[in-house]
């Protein structure tokens, strides 16, 4: 039996093989010499810059949001921790605390530096946050309020005498409306406030507590009206009052009552009402009203 070779091809097979070889060579040449890479797309730099700015802006907002916020403060009440967070050294903080132990008070940024010896750069940063009481920042003398119940013969503001004035505790809304600047709404507020208390006003100073009354309008009211029948109040002893007793006074809450007792203990008692102005968080603008309810005995 004769052996048949597997490498013998017919003419059509040879032609197919030849054509395949040519195609392979052609494609290899194309692959080797022709650049199939498409022209790379050029980035839109303006859009990218705008996007980067938006991302940077969001980052800054997030950083600012996470930064600890520092609010205005009275430098007399800086604690060890507060001083540390503000960038003060332990020596500088100790100087301030020693100064305060002597019951002395910082009343200006310059005095703060003299006591603590902080650097000029740190003082510049901190002094912008200093918040001193009104009696320090605005020491102008306030107009004196007259308690006409104690001085019945004394003349008040304007040309009217005490006798000529109408009793503020008995005045009608219509009578109050005769004052320039007092309309139906403000006269209603005055009467409503007066009726909150059995007996009405203690003093004209309480007009400051009525919403909508400006100092100018209050002055015009006191030209024509005076508290002639003041409400009787049982005054509380400032030097022996408990916290629960102090909070019954207008404008004093438990926190302020705590600081009053704390200051009273440090001072071994108050010698004058003016010492209340140095109590932490004391509502200085309401000082004259608070005094109506207190006695030093």
Automatic annotation (TrEMBL):
Check the record and name the InterPro entries matching this protein: Endo/Exo/Phosphatase_dom_1, RuvA_2-like
Pfam families assigned to the protein according to its UniProt record, in alphabetical order: HHH_3 (PF12836)
One GO BP annotation is: protein secretion by the type II secretion system
Name a GO CC annotation attached to this entry.
Answer: type II protein secretion system complex
Q: What name appears for this protein in its UniProt entry?
A: Helix-hairpin-helix domain-containing protein
Record the organism.
Answer: Gelidibacter gilvus
Lineage in the entry?
Bacteria, Pseudomonadati, Bacteroidota, Flavobacteriia, Flavobacteriales
